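Give me structure tokens for this 140-residue protein.
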Amino acid sequence: MLEELKQALKLHKEQNFTQAEKVYLGILQKDQQNFETLQLLGTLYLQTGKFDDSEVFLTKALKINSNNPNVLNNLGILFKNKKDFKKSEIFFKKNIKINNFLDSKINLGNVYILSEKFENALNLFLVLRLVHYHVKFLMI
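Here you go.
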């Protein structure tokens, strides 16, 4: 099964989504609880705009590993794309709290802008800029 997953991931990275999907689904026929496959197939569906399918597979992956940073971030992106900013915010905040995931911080700021919470967005981006500045300073 590991070879199949490697093949699917290679196809996925090459944006051969149709073939990658077929391999992922084949893996899931053998093992419906394969976390990596559920997460990757949910991501593929997110990338191709199949938001309902994405939600199904990312939610299954979340039930297996509720703290996975990629699943949490992708669910946040999914709900942002579905314009459900409250749910999106919940997933990004959870990912920030549990994993301190930088992409979720940036995505949360973008959700704040889309939901017209401009002060929240500004405060978040200012904090991110200060952190970036301090990291850069320490590297000198």
